[in-house]
Target: VOC family protein
Amino acid sequence: MKPKISLITLGVHDLKRAIQFYRDGLGLPEHETDSDEVAFFKMEGAWLSLFPRTSLAKDIGIADDSKGGFSGITLAHNVASQDAVDQVLEQAIAAGAELIKPAEKVFWGGYSGYFRDPEGHYWEVAYNPFMDLT
Model:
């Protein structure tokens, strides 16, 4: 696995308010997308993504329940191919991670899966054919 975090996704309760805060309040440059259900901000080193919290939990395949330990934050490691997604997930599992969602083609047109590290943090491993985040 390349030592890089490509994307940090914050699960937010009010997407419109969060976009205004990060774009208008903090001045982060928003990346244009065809969706009003997610926002991306290109930053130095990694991108910041805002996504409704319930949708983020649903994408992982878990309940949005703070008692269950979901912080509302995921880290993403983007790779250059679908095969690389499978390889990184296998490496993480071999190292002691728990496979949460096997890699699959996803609704936004990419390919991704999720694992949880031994401390309970959720990582998405993704191939995105529309945005080069590698």
